[in-house]
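Notes, p. 3: input format for complexes.
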Amino acid sequence: MALRESGGIAPPDPGQELRREAFSRLDESDDRLFYAKDRFVDHLDTIALATVEQIIGDVITQTNPVILDLMAGWNSHIPDRLHPSRMVGLGLNENELRQNKALSEHLIHDLNRDPHLPFPAETFDAVINTVSIDYMTRPVEVFSAVADILKKRGLLLIIFSNRMFPQKAVKIWKESSEEERVLLVEGFFQQSGAFGETTVIVSRGKPRPKEDKYAFLGIPSDPVYAVYARRE
Ligand SMILES: C[S@@+](CC[C@H](N)C(=O)[O-])C[C@H]1O[C@@H](n2cnc3c(N)ncnc32)[C@H](O)[C@@H]1O
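Output follows (232 residues plus S-adenosylmethionine):
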């Protein structure tokens, strides 16, 4: 319970309790344990992955950009034409990061323990986060930290779909509709107070590849949503 400076007892903050609950997970154990297992898998079907690559290539317009892949695995979905001059991957699985061919360097860093990003100010042209925002327990702090290490007018690009590890996704993400998730991510940008207007890209209803393991369900390709904004 918080104590006021006057010595009185402050009333509990119901907002703080709600926020804690909203960003709780079924599995609250150390994230490094869950991600210690190598997962050399595709998190989306091949058509959705091609869409992700196209969005990254279209939205990042600098020549030879310096890019940070936040919550990176073995694949950063960087199109060949982008040619980053430096590409850093930050994540939790050493083997996956080491085998990620797009990266020029990588580091292990748990964002839920420490949302601060260990880079000098104005290092990156773009920071990307692909199919991982569902696992951030302190997103607004992370978005603020990203703004600090982006160059002026640098870009933060968040891409997500509707698949997830349910035990590690935060409660509010799991309980939101896909449309509400777009609003949630836009809210993270706004609450950080560090970014300009957000742009949203939605790709839904493409046919699922015939060879995909879920093709027998008759469902379309995994949806892809992107929300991005520039540092103000
Ligand atoms: C679904 S995978 C996505 C990997 C990759 N971004 C991609 O597009 O394939 C989720 C990734 O988030 C990373 N991750 C999860 N929790 C994290 C945390 N607390 N701090 C940093 N990275 C985390 C994991 O290492 C894992 O690679």
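DSSP finds seven helices and seven strands in the chain.
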